[in-house]
Prior knowledge:
- By secondary structure, the protein is of the alpha+beta class.
- The protein contains 4 helices and 11 strands.
- The protein starts with a helix and ends with a helix.
Amino acid sequence: xxxxxxxxxxxxxxxxxxxxxxxxxxxxxxxxxxxxxxxxxxxxxxxxxxxxxxxxxxxxxxxxxxxxxxxxxxxxxxxxxxxxxxxxxxxxxxxxxxxxxxxxxxxxxxxxxxxxxxxxxxxxxxxxxxxxxxxxxxxxxxxxxxxxxxxxxxxxxxxxxxxxxxxxxxxxxxxxxxxxx
Length: 181
Protein backbone atom coordinates (compact mmCIF):
# COMPACT_ATOMS: atom_id res chain seq x y z
CA UNK A 1 0.00 0.00 0.00
CA UNK A 2 2.79 2.41 0.95
CA UNK A 3 4.70 1.63 -2.29
CA UNK A 4 1.54 2.25 -4.36
CA UNK A 5 0.99 5.62 -2.70
CA UNK A 6 4.59 6.65 -3.31
CA UNK A 7 4.38 5.52 -6.95
CA UNK A 8 1.14 7.48 -7.57
CA UNK A 9 2.57 10.60 -5.88
CA UNK A 10 5.74 10.32 -7.96
CA UNK A 11 3.74 10.06 -11.22
CA UNK A 12 1.67 13.14 -10.27
CA UNK A 13 4.72 15.19 -9.36
CA UNK A 14 6.63 14.19 -12.51
CA UNK A 15 3.59 14.83 -14.70
CA UNK A 16 3.02 18.28 -13.18
CA UNK A 17 6.69 19.14 -13.54
CA UNK A 18 6.69 18.06 -17.18
CA UNK A 19 3.66 20.26 -17.89
CA UNK A 20 5.38 23.22 -16.24
CA UNK A 21 8.45 22.85 -18.44
CA UNK A 22 6.40 22.25 -21.60
CA UNK A 23 4.23 25.36 -21.13
CA UNK A 24 5.27 28.32 -23.33
CA UNK A 25 7.39 30.84 -21.47
CA UNK A 26 6.08 33.90 -23.40
CA UNK A 27 2.92 34.58 -21.46
CA UNK A 28 2.05 37.75 -23.43
CA UNK A 29 0.59 35.55 -26.16
CA UNK A 30 -1.12 33.12 -23.80
CA UNK A 31 -2.97 35.43 -21.42
CA UNK A 32 -6.75 35.42 -21.63
CA UNK A 33 -9.22 37.97 -20.32
CA UNK A 34 -6.93 40.86 -19.42
CA UNK A 35 -3.76 40.85 -21.48
CA UNK A 36 -0.75 43.08 -21.65
CA UNK A 37 2.06 43.02 -24.16
CA UNK A 38 5.08 45.28 -23.89
CA UNK A 39 7.54 46.24 -26.59
CA UNK A 40 10.34 48.66 -25.73
CA UNK A 41 8.74 52.06 -25.01
CA UNK A 42 5.32 51.08 -26.37
CA UNK A 43 2.72 49.09 -24.44
CA UNK A 44 -0.52 47.51 -25.55
CA UNK A 45 -3.16 46.36 -23.13
CA UNK A 46 -6.36 44.52 -23.86
CA UNK A 47 -9.23 44.02 -21.48
CA UNK A 48 -12.51 42.32 -22.33
CA UNK A 49 -12.43 43.24 -26.02
CA UNK A 50 -11.25 46.81 -25.43
CA UNK A 51 -7.77 47.75 -26.53
CA UNK A 52 -5.57 50.54 -25.32
CA UNK A 53 -2.18 51.39 -26.70
CA UNK A 54 0.30 53.79 -25.21
CA UNK A 55 2.97 55.05 -27.53
CA UNK A 56 5.40 57.84 -26.82
CA UNK A 57 3.24 59.01 -23.91
CA UNK A 58 0.10 59.29 -26.06
CA UNK A 59 -2.82 56.99 -25.27
CA UNK A 60 -4.92 55.55 -28.06
CA UNK A 61 -7.98 53.50 -27.18
CA UNK A 62 -10.54 51.32 -28.91
CA UNK A 63 -13.60 50.33 -26.95
CA UNK A 64 -16.47 48.36 -28.48
CA UNK A 65 -15.69 49.63 -31.96
CA UNK A 66 -14.96 53.25 -31.08
CA UNK A 67 -12.14 54.53 -33.22
CA UNK A 68 -8.62 54.78 -31.92
CA UNK A 69 -6.73 58.00 -32.37
CA UNK A 70 -3.42 58.22 -34.11
CA UNK A 71 -1.03 61.06 -34.55
CA UNK A 72 -0.06 62.07 -38.07
CA UNK A 73 3.34 63.46 -39.09
CA UNK A 74 1.91 66.98 -38.75
CA UNK A 75 0.89 66.27 -35.16
CA UNK A 76 -2.86 66.38 -35.90
CA UNK A 77 -5.09 63.63 -34.56
CA UNK A 78 -7.08 61.43 -36.92
CA UNK A 79 -9.37 58.48 -36.33
CA UNK A 80 -8.29 55.01 -37.28
CA UNK A 81 -10.74 52.43 -38.57
CA UNK A 82 -12.21 49.75 -36.34
CA UNK A 83 -12.30 46.00 -35.73
CA UNK A 84 -15.43 44.91 -33.93
CA UNK A 85 -17.93 42.10 -33.52
CA UNK A 86 -20.50 41.71 -36.29
CA UNK A 87 -23.99 43.11 -35.81
CA UNK A 88 -26.40 43.72 -38.74
CA UNK A 89 -26.82 47.42 -37.93
CA UNK A 90 -23.05 47.96 -38.34
CA UNK A 91 -23.36 47.44 -42.11
CA UNK A 92 -24.61 51.04 -42.24
CA UNK A 93 -21.01 52.12 -41.64
CA UNK A 94 -20.48 51.36 -45.35
CA UNK A 95 -22.34 54.60 -46.16
CA UNK A 96 -19.23 56.53 -45.12
CA UNK A 97 -16.49 53.97 -45.72
CA UNK A 98 -15.67 50.35 -46.37
CA UNK A 99 -17.04 47.41 -44.38
CA UNK A 100 -15.40 43.98 -44.54
CA UNK A 101 -16.85 40.86 -42.93
CA UNK A 102 -14.12 38.57 -41.57
CA UNK A 103 -15.54 35.03 -41.27
CA UNK A 104 -13.35 33.73 -38.45
CA UNK A 105 -13.37 30.47 -36.52
CA UNK A 106 -11.82 30.30 -33.05
CA UNK A 107 -10.31 26.89 -33.87
CA UNK A 108 -8.66 28.08 -37.12
CA UNK A 109 -4.91 28.81 -36.68
CA UNK A 110 -4.82 31.11 -39.72
CA UNK A 111 -7.80 33.05 -38.38
CA UNK A 112 -6.22 33.35 -34.95
CA UNK A 113 -2.97 34.65 -36.46
CA UNK A 114 -4.77 37.33 -38.49
CA UNK A 115 -6.96 38.27 -35.51
CA UNK A 116 -3.78 38.77 -33.44
CA UNK A 117 -2.17 40.84 -36.22
CA UNK A 118 -5.24 43.07 -36.53
CA UNK A 119 -5.42 43.58 -32.76
CA UNK A 120 -1.70 44.36 -32.61
CA UNK A 121 -2.09 46.96 -35.38
CA UNK A 122 -5.46 48.59 -34.65
CA UNK A 123 -4.02 52.02 -35.38
CA UNK A 124 -3.05 50.86 -38.88
CA UNK A 125 -6.66 50.20 -39.94
CA UNK A 126 -7.48 53.00 -42.40
CA UNK A 127 -9.90 55.60 -41.04
CA UNK A 128 -12.69 54.65 -43.45
CA UNK A 129 -12.46 50.87 -42.87
CA UNK A 130 -14.56 48.78 -40.49
CA UNK A 131 -13.68 45.09 -40.14
CA UNK A 132 -16.54 43.07 -38.65
CA UNK A 133 -15.59 39.82 -36.92
CA UNK A 134 -18.17 37.18 -37.93
CA UNK A 135 -18.25 33.89 -35.99
CA UNK A 136 -17.91 31.29 -38.75
CA UNK A 137 -19.43 28.50 -36.66
CA UNK A 138 -22.57 30.42 -35.63
CA UNK A 139 -23.40 32.40 -38.78
CA UNK A 140 -25.09 29.91 -41.10
CA UNK A 141 -27.44 32.47 -42.68
CA UNK A 142 -24.60 34.89 -43.48
CA UNK A 143 -22.44 32.09 -44.87
CA UNK A 144 -25.31 31.06 -47.16
CA UNK A 145 -26.04 34.65 -48.21
CA UNK A 146 -22.45 35.28 -49.31
CA UNK A 147 -21.57 31.72 -50.41
CA UNK A 148 -18.90 31.35 -47.71
CA UNK A 149 -17.77 27.73 -47.45
CA UNK A 150 -14.41 28.27 -45.78
CA UNK A 151 -13.33 30.08 -42.62
CA UNK A 152 -10.82 32.87 -43.12
CA UNK A 153 -13.03 34.36 -45.84
CA UNK A 154 -13.56 38.10 -46.31
CA UNK A 155 -16.62 39.75 -47.83
CA UNK A 156 -16.71 43.48 -48.52
CA UNK A 157 -20.29 44.77 -48.40
CA UNK A 158 -22.20 47.98 -49.01
CA UNK A 159 -24.56 49.62 -46.49
CA UNK A 160 -27.42 47.35 -47.65
CA UNK A 161 -25.34 44.21 -47.12
CA UNK A 162 -24.79 43.60 -50.84
CA UNK A 163 -21.51 41.89 -51.67
CA UNK A 164 -18.89 44.10 -53.35
CA UNK A 165 -15.96 41.67 -53.23
CA UNK A 166 -15.01 38.31 -51.66
CA UNK A 167 -11.58 36.79 -51.07
CA UNK A 168 -9.57 34.43 -48.87
CA UNK A 169 -5.96 34.10 -47.79
CA UNK A 170 -5.17 37.50 -46.33
CA UNK A 171 -2.58 36.54 -43.69
CA UNK A 172 -2.01 40.09 -42.38
CA UNK A 173 -3.96 43.29 -41.84
CA UNK A 174 -1.97 44.93 -44.64
CA UNK A 175 -2.95 42.15 -47.04
CA UNK A 176 -6.61 42.39 -45.98
CA UNK A 177 -6.65 46.16 -46.54
CA UNK A 178 -4.97 45.80 -49.94
CA UNK A 179 -7.89 43.65 -51.17
CA UNK A 180 -10.56 46.24 -50.39
CA UNK A 181 -12.15 47.61 -53.57
